[in-house]
Amino acid sequence: MRYTAFTSYDIVLLAQGLGVSLALFLATTIIGLFIGSLWAVIRFYRIPVLAQIVAVVAEVLKNSPVLVQLFLVFFGLPAFAKINVTPVEAAVITLSGNTAAFVYVIAVSAIESIGRDQIEAARVFGLSRWQILRRIIAPQAMAFAIGPLTGLLVNQLQVTSLISVIGVVDLTKIGNILNLRTLKPFIVWAVVGGLYYVMAKLVAFGGARLEKRLRAHTAWKGL
Amino acid sequence: MISVRGVRKAFGSATVLDGIDLDVHSGEVVSILGSSGSGKSTLIRCMNGLEKLDGGRITIDDFDVSRPKELSEARKRSATVFQLFNLYPHMTAVQNIALAPVEVLKIPRKQAEADARTLLDSVGLSARADAFPAQLSGGQRQRVGICRALAMKPRYLLLDEITSALDPEMTSDVLAILAKLAHDGTTMVFVTHEIEFARTISSRIVFLDKGQLVVDLPTAEFFAADGGMAKPRIAQFLSKMRKD
Fold first, then answer.
1. Cβ–Cβ of B91/A217 closer than 8 Å?
2. What is the count of structural domains for chain B?
3. Is the dihedral of CA A59, A61, A62, A63 positive or negative?
4. Beta-bridge partner residues of B20
5. How far off is chain B from A203, nearest CA to CA, in Å?
6. Which candidate from B80, B90, B137 shows the least CB-CB separation from A223?
7. I want to staple B163 with a disulfide (CB 3.0 to 4.6 A). Which of A142, A197, B142, B171 is the partner?
8. CB under 8 Å, gap of 24 or more: what pairs does A61-66 form?
9. PROSITE patterns, alphabetically (chain B) (predicted)?
C-alpha cells in the first residue's frame, strides 16, 4: 500500500519533467522562430527555387499531424537515411520544424501587412534592401505578428507533451510514471495540467507585455 | 540638372508617358500640371527610380536612374515628398527624419537627430518632435515629410501632389514652407493642382495631357492669353480648376 503513496521525491521528479519540457519548448521556439523568419525573408525577396522549396516544406509541415512527423523523424531517419537520433534530438528536430512552418505563415502575413508606400519611401531615400528589412519591415512585422505568435507558442507548449511517446522524460512522461505508480490519475493529471496551464499563462503574459511595447506607436496621445 | 529624354512608360496596354522631354536646371521651380491620369505622378516616380522606364532616359546630375549602379547616386541628389506622406508609423517624427541620414549618409545618430530637431523647429513642429505619425494631423505629417526630404540635403526636391490630402488650412501651412524653400533657391519639381500657388512660386510650368507634354513654358508665358492659354486644352483645364 505504501508504494502507491506520494513522496517528497515526486516533487523533484515533477520539477525535472517540467525542466525538460521547458528546455525543449525554449530551444524549439528559438530554432523555430529563426528558421520560420528566415523562410519568410526568402519568400519576401522571392529568391528563386528556395522560395518554392520553403513554401512546399511549410505546407507539408503545417498540414500533417505532429505525432506523425515525430514518428517519421525518430523511426524514419535511422531506417531510410541511416541517421540515428536520440529521442531528444528527434523531439528538437520535429518541434522546431513544426514551429518554423507556422512562424513562416505568421511572418509572411505580417510582412505583407506593411504598406508598400513605406518601403517605396525608404527606397527613394537610398536605403538598401537589408536596411529596409532591419529598420522598416522587421520592427513593424514583429508588432503585427506578436499576437498570433503568442497563440502559436501557447499551442506549441502543449504540443511538447507528445514527445513522451518516443521516450523523452518530460512533464507528461513523469505524470504517466507517477500515475502508474500511485494509481491516482485525477490528482497526478490535475497537477500536470496545472503546471502546463501556469507555463501557458506565463507565455501569454510575456507575449501581451511585448505586444504592448512593440505597438506603442499606435497609441493615440492627442494632438 | 535633371534631364528627361524621350521617356515612355506603359502599364499593360495603357501608355501613361509618351515621349516626355524635360530639363530642370539648378534653382528652378518647375510645376507639372495636368488632369488626373495625365501622367504627372508617374513622371515623378520615374524620376526617383520607383518605376522602370519602357523607353528613354532620365539622368540626375548625369547619373542614369535606370542603371542600378548609378541609381543610388541619383537618389542621394534628389528627395521625394509623397502625396500620402509615407511616414514610418513605428518611428517618431525625429526618427523618421534622421533614419536616412544615419543609414545612407552615415551621419552619427546624435548629430542627425539634432539636425532633425532643427528642421522640425523651422516648420513649427519642435513640440511634436517625439510624436509618432498617428499622433500628428495631416498637415503636421506632411511637414515631417518635407523635413525628411530636406534632411538629405538634396539638390532636387520632387513633390508629388503633397497638399491633395490636406484641408485648406493645412494646405496653406505646407505651401508657406514651399514658398520659403523656393525663395531660398531650392530646386523643385512640383506636381500640383494648386494653380495659383504654382503661378506664384514656379519659374516654369509644364502641362501634361494623356501622357504627352503639351507645353513647357516660363510661368508668365504659360498664363498669358497668347501663350499657354491659347491652347484650348490648357484654357479648358485652367477654367475647370478655377471653378472647382
1. yes
2. 1
3. positive
4. B7
5. 25
6. B137
7. B171
8. A61/A97, A61/A98, A61/A100, A61/A101, A62/A98, A62/A101, A62/A102, A62/A105, A66/A94, A66/A95, A66/A98, A66/A159, A66/A162
9. ABC_TRANSPORTER_1, ABC_TRANSPORTER_2
Nearest chain A residue to B44 by CA: give it: A124
* Interface contact A131-B103, CB threshold 8 A: yes
Instruction: Identify the domain containing residue B113 by its residue range.
Output: 2-241
In chain A, what are the domain boundaries? 9-218
Phi, psi for residue A23 in degrees, rounded to 5: -65, -45
Shortest distance between the Cα of A127 and any Cα of chain B, in A, equals: 6
pLDDT of residue B141: 92
Map residue B151 onto helix, strand or coil.
Answer: coil
> 500628428: which residue's cell?
B136
Report the C-alpha gap between A109 and A117 in whole angstroms. Answer: 17
Q: Are A55 and A43 in contact (CB under 8 A)?
A: yes
Cβ contact A121–B82 (<8 Å): yes
Pair A62, A105: CB distance under 8 Å: yes
pTM of the predicted structure, to 2 decimals: 0.82
Tell me which H or E stretch contains A173: helix A171-182
B-chain CB neighbours of A136 within 8 Å are 88
Contacts of A123 in chain B (CB under 8 A): 49-50
Interchain pair B135, A221: CB under 8 A: yes
Residue B171 CA: distances (Å) to CA of A223, B178, B211? 18, 11, 27
Are the Cβ atoms of A222 and B76 closer than 8 angstroms?
Answer: no
Q: Which amino acid is at A13?
A: L
Would you call B82 an interface residue with chain A, using a CB distance cutoff of 8 Å?
yes
Q: Give the CATH number of domain A9-218; options: 1.10.10.10, 1.10.3720.10, 3.30.420.40, 3.40.50.2300.
A: 1.10.3720.10
Torsion angle of alpha carbons B179, B183, B185, B190, nearest 10°? 20
